[in-house]
Amino acid sequence: MISSKLRVLLIDKRRPTDTNKKEYQKSKCCGGLLAPDAQKMIAMLGLGLPGDIMVGPQLFTVRTIDLQNSLERYYQRFYINIDRRKFDSWLVSLVPGAVDLRLGCSFKSFARAGGYFELRFAQNDTEYVERARFLVGADGAFSMVRKLAFPNLPEPIKYTAVQEWFYLDQIQPYFTTLFDPEISDFYSWTIPKENMLLLGAAIPHRCDVNAKFNLLKNKLKNYGFRFGSAAKREGTLLLRPVNTNQICTGANGVALIGEAAGLISPSSAEGLSYAFKSALACAQSIAKAAPDFTDTYRRNAAGMFSNIRLKNLKSPFMYHPGLRKIIMSSGIMSMDVNRGTV
Ligand SMILES: Cc1cc2nc3c(=O)[nH]c(=O)nc-3n(C[C@H](O)[C@H](O)[C@H](O)COP(=O)(O)OP(=O)(O)OC[C@H]3O[C@@H](n4cnc5c(N)ncnc54)[C@H](O)[C@@H]3O)c2cc1C
Predict the structure, then answer these.
(1) What stretches in the chain show pLDDT beneath 70?
(2) Where in the sequence is the domain holding 103, given as residue range(s)?
(3) Distance 39 CA to ligand 1 centre (A)
(4) For atom 36 of ligand 1, which residue has the closest CA?
(5) Domain for residue 342, yes or no?
(6) Residue 191 lies in a domain
(7) Which helix (H) or strand (E) holds 272?
(8) Atom 34 of ligand 1, residue of closest alpha carbon
(9) Number of C-beta neighbours around residue 161 at 10 A
(10) CATH of the domain at 211
(11) Closest ligand 1 atom, residue 33 Cα
(12) Which of 116, 117, 257, 295 could cross-link with 131 by S-S, CB 3.0 to 4.6 Å?
């Protein structure tokens, strides 16, 4: 979009288009569920999802289990179940030819030099320097751009997200969300992906992740889950903005989008819609208001701040054990799921 007006350099250390096993392992650790807000953003960008990005089963139900209170409910939801690596690869394929795309390049640092940013990045063992008028950090939860440009700003709460993938004979067609204060004050999940089941948990930073994850697996035995050895284990940082002062869209020529800005749902960890929304708002601001685009971008992002504020207000109903117990016991908004009999 902006590449028709400006010269764009796009750097990413991953190569999602590369299908060799080593690169595949480096794909983003993600549940790969496209929520309705993310689907809407894809529609607003004039795009449709290629069929081979979807993985079965498609999911219409969230099975919610409160492990502490032994409560279980089903809620109707509309997700699209996707292969995240293929999704990222598709997004890269949409980058216009005019963009200088450098995959497999790690951004290292930047310095201000006159009216420019001097960007340092490396590919293999070679270091490169390029000059740019604006810098947009779309570098996720570990954002180096945010660390360097805004080191003193409050940060969202950090969790270690772990996901293990298991081959199972029988896989139920539910996205399961699991709540248990002994494991996390956030949540854990299972998501079926073809003949595999993905078990994930967001565990408070600096806790004993392995102990908590094993405890989760043990507790799930009571619910019919039998986990053997994992075919794949992955982990990353997950951010949870519990206050909008932890969100930073940037200033003075440096913008942050997606999780680098702290834009992610504090109630569900859904982040793809925010990544698309903020990217679009930022691109429109650059097109309209360069060189002072960061003020315009912040104003354009106001809706996302309000949305995250609302989600934080909703959070206690999901995460306060007492309130969750009342809501789940009441059965409000839940549905019956007939397992196997008509
Ligand atoms: C376990 C887990 C499950 C999730 N499940 C879902 C889900 O089901 N649905 C959903 O909507 N959201 C989910 N999310 C959130 C979602 O994955 C993120 O919010 C979303 O990917 C953020 O997009 P982004 O572009 O901001 O960052 P990312 O997707 O993290 O992309 C950042 C990019 O920056 C690159 N990068 C980072 N540092 C550098 C560097 N120094 N140099 C060069 N490149 C760099 C990375 O290679 C990467 O490609 C989940 C998150 C986690 C952790």
Answers:
(1) 3, 19-25, 339-342
(2) 1-32+98-133
(3) 17
(4) 139
(5) no
(6) yes
(7) helix 272-289
(8) 139
(9) 24
(10) 3.50.50.60
(11) 8
(12) 116
